[in-house]
Amino acid sequence: MFDLLLAYGRSQSSVTRLRNGSLNVAVDSAQEVAQKSIVYFKKTGNDPLTLIEDLKATPAVVRFSTRFVIVTDYADLIAHDTKTKETIGFPIREIDQHFTFFLPWAGMEKAQYVAESHAVLRSPAPRANTARRRVADQAPRSGPALGALRCDTRPPNSGVGHARRIHLRATR
């Protein structure tokens, strides 16, 4: 456990203090290692999958808001990310294939893709610029009857929260 924390860039001094017990906030320090907002680790001889479900809801995990809850029997490792609510399990010798799961320890959060709504993609300002270009393209073809066209993107009586509109006025 301590080597894993060091591999992800945790400082040597904090890992040493955790190993010595001054930073360990675990309930049973003989079987568990816990650091506030970082990790809650427990070794077990039983099935780690059933134990992690119980451990996720324990008061110690909730109180210290640990980022990762890890349970292992040293054959398999089960880890739960309390922020993203992801749980992963794998044989412990394959930990190198799942290194991205623990990247938040190194300060690299997982990207959460959020699709932008149609309203954000079609905001009023780009439409006003597009309309202004269309007007400018059409102005020379409109002929002398209208005179020159002037494009104004400010709405009349403009106030906060009004959508921008294109107002065309013929000038003589």
Notes on the protein architecture:
The protein is of the alpha+beta class and 172 residues long. It has a 5-stranded mixed sheet, covered by helices on one side. Strands 6-7 form a two-stranded antiparallel ribbon. It has 2 domains: 2-106, 3-Layer(aba) Sandwich (Rossmann fold); 118-171, no CATH class. The protein has helices at 2-7, 12-20, 48-56, 59-63, 118-121, 124-138, and strands at residues 32-35, 39-43, 68-72, 76-81, 86-91, 148-152, 167-171. Strand 1 and strand 2 form a beta hairpin. The protein contains 6 helices and 7 strands.
What are the salient characteristics of this protein?
five-stranded mixed sheet, single chain, alpha+beta, two-stranded antiparallel ribbon, 172 residues, Rossmann fold
Short description:
By secondary structure, this protein is α+β, with helices and mostly antiparallel strands.
Structural class: alpha+beta
Give the number of domains: 2
* CATH class value of the largest domain: Alpha Beta
CATH topology group of the largest domain: Rossmann fold
Distance between the termini: 81 Å
Biggest sheet record: 5 strands, mixed
